[in-house]
């Protein structure tokens, strides 16, 4: 069978993990589940045809070409010739850091927990675990659980952790009375209330989550009574408090150890300058760390006079977006602003001021490489083909067949998730839906990319257009499904 030749790695997975072997061998398929003469006539499905039909569906969904990791992706139409001003956030937008910075943040945060908050010295033995967490996760401060939530507020089962321990699906379903998280727990209504679900949205939060999970695990193992909310607040405050120390440590001599140098950044910024584009940088990092802040350089402090105009080459601090627009005369839709934090960098300026926005998501490059890998493509094609068979099987009375297909699908889902991150999967999707993080990304950014210099691959007048994605009722896969179904119609 074609599937057998194609999927060597996948074949091993199926052989080892799944009882239902029809994907590999038609004979095994019929022997392992039914004999042909036992097929209920009411099912409308001829089992001898199932593997062929699976292959047809697999091939339909397996033909997509690879995605270039350095593309710029459009959520909304954006004509670059309309853009006169380019603005940038600093950390993880213009400055992208190596993973060594996560180790440093973790170590410094852990020290603060011990020295300032008097946490047990034993936590010194708990090291940073790379790839434990991803950004965009939610932490339930009441139950002390870390989890991934999708755009429909559904918890992704299998991605819920207390400390370093995965929580059983049944326990999660009992705790939340299902898998739905009500809006009031997750989204502020603007009344300044404390939310029970805290979302961890930036890359600095990845080492913070790991520290929180390690400490939680230590407390659990040693039967130390604690409030998850207090642990969360202490960890967050500890990590936030290290920024001045971190900036002091990362001086000119050490910057190369932490900063991922992109030579093309110079080319990119010069290209903007040569095309008479105005540029500005907004950062909350100290001036000595980023040499673009409102300081009087000679006296090394801020001036006292009221600022009524903004002059090129000067550094300003504080102020508001509204004042910035008033003083410069810039129109919101002529500004393209880049940031890595969906809420604090992008949401307000696009919702309230109409700025065009570009999100910088450094994880994108790695996720696209996984997406392009043969392992992933085969697994996801098989998943979609299986899902179509499951859809068809629903109209039968054959619950045993349906159970087998669902069991196989669930094993494959777990496998595809692990290809991105063993605990939490992709930052962009759960099994079927975009994540909560993705939904905000698509809403608050016009374009998104792994790094700003990806724009060097496009002209200064490029018009970005979102791909005309198929709506569920327009899917060509569904059309294959319908055509196949029609052949079964009486
Ligand atoms: Mg940033």
Calculate the mean pLDDT score and round it. 81
Helix content: 40-55%
Strand content: 5-15%
What gross morphology would you assign?
Answer: globular
Please count the helical segments. 19
Structural class: alpha/beta
Q: What is the number of beta strands?
A: 13
Spatial separation of the terminal alpha carbons: 29 Å
Largest sheet: 6 strands, mixed
Our Rg estimate from Cα atoms comes to: 26 Å
Strand arrangement, major sheet: 1-12-11-10-3-9
Ligand identities: magnesium ion
Q: Would you identify the regions where 5 or more consecutive residues have pLDDT less than 50?
A: 1-43, 478-490
Keywords: Hydrolase, Magnesium, Metal-binding
Protein name: 5'-nucleotidase domain-containing protein 3
GO molecular function: 5'-nucleotidase activity; metal ion binding
Family: Belongs to the 5'(3')-deoxyribonucleotidase family.
Topology:
Blueprint: H1 2-6, H2 8-17, H3 26-33, H4 47-61, E1 72-74, E2 78-79, E3 85-89, H5 100-115, E4 137-140, E5 145-149, E6 155-162, E7 165-166, H6 169-175, H7 183-186, E8 197-200, H8 205-221, H9 228-241, H10 243-249, H11 255-258, H12 264-274, E9 278-282, H13 321-328, E10 335-339, H14 342-353, E11 356-360, H15 363-372, H16 374-393, H17 399-420, H18 436-444, E12 447-449, E13 463-464, H19 476-488
Parallel strand pairs: 3-9, 3-10, 10-11, 11-12
Antiparallel strand pairs: 1-12, 2-13, 4-5, 4-8, 5-6, 6-7
Helix pairs in contact: 4-16, 5-8, 5-9, 8-9, 14-18, 16-17
The chain binds magnesium ion (MG).
Magnesium ion binds at residues 89, 91-93, 340-341.
Keywords: Hydrolase, Magnesium, Metal-binding
InterPro entries: HAD-like_sf, HAD-SF_hydro_IG_5-nucl, HAD_sf
GO molecular function, one term: 5'-nucleotidase activity
